[in-house]
Design a protein that fits this description.
Keywords: Signal. The chain is mainly β. The protein is built from two helices and 22 strands. Strands 1, 13, 14, 17, 18, 19, 20, 21 and 22 form a nine-stranded antiparallel sheet that branches.
């Protein structure tokens, strides 16, 4: 009886250890290099700056303001109000109740958070709020400091920044979220097979960076802020655009211009998604 009891305890302990190791592997984000990504398999971004589309939009100019219809979409008007250091900040905007899956290539997607009654640029999920669509204006103490247009949550067309005296300080142009200063290179221009997208705003790299294999699969993703690489940059194996398997992750500074920070390889995986290296924390 005593022998049976010790065998039972030993079996239970081994089972518990095995279960714990399995649970740890499941919860470990590096246990496999294969990831679920909205970018992979990819269809690539559409042509970024379409002159013909711009001409068509100009033809519809007279129809835009009628009944809050912008780019053919019925919208509602909204506003948010807050105070910071004695300054009253108001945001006037339009939003659409139509749902649309955010473009995974665009970093900043603006939406109206109905619970917080505020405009946000990240964290949008269907049912939590509404995408901004149409004209936008921000004022500080009743002086307009920013104005522009949104297209399903993405900055679109001309955006202008003003100082406290309402004097124009800067002007930028967007095409459905992409700054039109962005540098785009192609493997094949006639088929719009994109090789690299470097987002440029106000003369500096700003936004999501992408590099593609010639089979249109994403090869490298990362983010720029104020001309500096920030956060986690990820390289992917070329799997023929069938699945996403990470190849390497490189950790950059979390905030631009951080002093004494040296980028380092955080983890690496082989072509089958097996972890081959991870930097110990």
């Amino acid at each position: 009886m005593s022998k049976f009891y010790f065998l039972l305890i030993g079996t239970l302990l081994l089972s518990k250890m095995a279960f714990a190791q399995k649970s740890e592997a499941i919860s470990d984000p590096d246990s496999t290099g294969q990831v679920s990504s909205s970018l992979l398999p990819t269809t690539m971004p559409l042509l970024l700056f379409d002159d013909n589309k711009e001409k068509e939009e100009k033809k519809e100019k007279k129809k835009k303001a009628r009944k809050n219809i912008w780019f053919g979409i019925k919208t509602r008007k909204g506003y948010s109000k807050r105070e910071i250091r004695g300054q009253e900040i108001l945001e006037f905007f339009n939003y659409t109740e139509e749902s649309r899956r955010p473009d995974p290539y665009i970093r900043d997607v603006y939406w109206y958070d109905t619970q917080e009654r505020s405009v946000r640029s990240s964290g949008y999920e269907e049912g939590k709020g509404y995408l901004l669509h149409g004209p936008y204006e921000r004022t500080i103490n009743e002086t307009v400091v920013e104005s522009g247009m949104f297209y399903f949550g993405k900055k679109h067309k001309t955006w202008m920044l003003f100082d406290s005296q309402n004097v124009l300080q800067d002007k930028n142009h967007f095409s459905e979220g992409w700054p039109e200063e962005s540098r785009v290179s192609y493997y094949e221009r006639s088929t719009q097979t994109i090789e690299e997208i470097i987002p440029i705003q106000y003369g500096l790299e700003e936004g999501n960076y992408f590099y593609f294999y010639d089979d249109k699969q994403v090869a490298v993703t990362g983010e720029y802020q104020y001309g500096e690489k920030v956060g986690l940059w990820t390289e992917y194996w070329d799997t023929g655009n069938t699945k996403a398997i990470r190849k390497r992750e490189i950790q950059y500074q979390e905030e631009p211009y951080s002093k004494n920070f040296r980028p380092y390889i955080r983890a690496e995986w082989d072509k089958d998604g097996n972890l081959v290296y991870r930097k110990e924390q």
